[in-house]
Amino acid sequence: MKHIARKRFGQHFLRDASIVHAIVDTIAPRPGECLVEIGPGLGALTLPLLERCRSLTVIELDRDLAARARRWQGVTVVEGDVLEVDFVRLAESFPPAPASIAPGQVRGGRLRVVGNLPYNVSTPILFHLLQVVEVVHDQHFMLQSEVVDRMAAEPGGRSYGRLSVMLQWRYEIERVLDVPPDAFDPPPAVDSAVVRMTPHLRSGLTDATLLGEIVTVAFSQRRKLLRHTLGRWLEERHHTGFFDTTRRAEEVPVSEYVELAAALKRNPAPAAVTDVQAG
Q1: Which one of 32, 64, 95, 175 has the fewest CB atoms closer than 10 angstroms to its CB?
Q2: Chain centroid offset of residue 178 CA
Q3: Structural domain containing residue 48
């Protein structure tokens, strides 16, 4: 029975075989790796991945698609919302790595996470995974092209913002493939792209909450100079170190936001919480 794409789940099924093969070649899965696919859909990517890795785990919210995936040999199905999945426990559920996988092959974690992410919840999924980056080896996602632009943006441009800072803090971001709308059924109204996300071995900071608060305040009024937003926030916290607030938020590189968060972490001071909205 033909499955009709469900709008409420943001379903757009990949159908272009050449694109699928290019993605699989980019991921280059090997037997014994801990491969996890978010949203397997009709299996366009799942089945070619299985040919190479022999087994993988899929996370599927749509119960009809989850039932379909259970029929595929070598597939373990986690039925539910990916935003509620405990990836740390999931990583622990995999058997020990075989001897064929060299100790240095995994960077800081074991999970290789892939997927054609629903565009309406792609950012929440990225931030959910950011919390468990220590158990991740790498991530390959199909996303809206504009989102990939924001993820990989450099300081100084309009695309550079909170998403850029928070993800580049923990990952190397690389755009690896552009995908046109007609590669999907039904075609989305936007262009897509595949991004590779490789965790940094060291981040220099462990407090994601503090960094997130700093970046949210900084970009809350991105057209204004930082002295009107982050400058006041720092004054409330009696921060005595130097931070140039004569710039706009988009002009500050990731490393400086991270250094500021590390300095505040070393020398915390009580302060009132400022209610802001990210811009």
Answers
A1: 95
A2: 17
A3: 7-199
